[in-house]
């Protein structure tokens, strides 16, 4: 089991930027948070440190009052991008925005560390193994609303095609916006029409070069 942060580390976590999670401290202090999985070092200069989703949860746990007995427990397994259609997904709000931002920054760092040329503008191996989650994270991080109960938005689903996901939305404007976001994130996306339902959708796959 991971040891809880020390009092000094808790103070650093509480003092982090409320939106970006940017941290201040000595290199030794910051490295200790990275080792615990509570922070990550950004790949680009000036190589600032930011809270990970676990770091944000640690801060919120310190600030939040004791929950009522009937309060729902957090979903096991840590952060999960909204793929659309979840009826009991995490609520939108500042906490969710911070968590998504931190997850996206962490994914960019993973690209830098695992792509052979260190490229951050192209999906990495993890994304190719988790296509739906990766595409959904790119969309949610860019501010697109996922499909939910009573709301329009994107929905990402697996397809029989290798390395491809289907992205659906309530209208053509949503599909075009999602396509632009995915292409900016290093994906290839093209519009298609379902031959049976005549519904328009995107077919998106990670770009290799």
UniProtKB/TrEMBL annotation:
Q: Note down the stretches annotated as region Disordered.
A: 1-21, 44-100, 187-209
| Name of the protein this chain belongs to | Uncharacterized protein
Question: What domain of life does the UniProt record list for this protein's source?
Answer: Bacteria
Q: Which organism is it from?
A: Streptomyces vulcanius
**Biased composition, class Basic and acidic residues, residue ranges:** 191-201
């Amino acid at each position: 089991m991971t040891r809880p942060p020390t009092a000094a580390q808790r103070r650093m976590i509480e003092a982090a930027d409320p939106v970006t999670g940017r941290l201040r401290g000595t290199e030794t202090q910051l490295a200790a948070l990275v080792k615990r999985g509570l922070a990550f070092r950004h790949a680009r200069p000036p190589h600032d440190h930011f809270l990970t989703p676990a770091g944000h949860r640690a801060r919120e746990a310190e600030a939040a009052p004791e929950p009522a007995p009937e309060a729902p427990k957090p979903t096991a397994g840590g952060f999960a991008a909204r793929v659309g259609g979840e009826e009991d997904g995490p609520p939108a709000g500042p906490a969710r925005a911070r968590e998504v931002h931190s997850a996206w920054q962490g994914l960019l760092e993973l690209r830098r560390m695992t792509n052979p040329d260190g490229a951050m503008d192209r999906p990495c191996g993890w994304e190719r193994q988790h296509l739906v989650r990766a595409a959904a994270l790119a969309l949610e991080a860019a501010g697109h609303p996922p499909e939910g109960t009573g709301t329009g938005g994107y929905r990402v689903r697996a397809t029989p095609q290798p390395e491809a996901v289907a992205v659906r939305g309530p209208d053509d404007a949503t599909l075009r916006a999602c396509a632009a976001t995915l292409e900016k994130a290093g994906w290839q996306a093209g519009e298609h029409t379902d031959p049976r339902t005549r519904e328009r959708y995107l077919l998106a796959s990670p770009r290799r070069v």
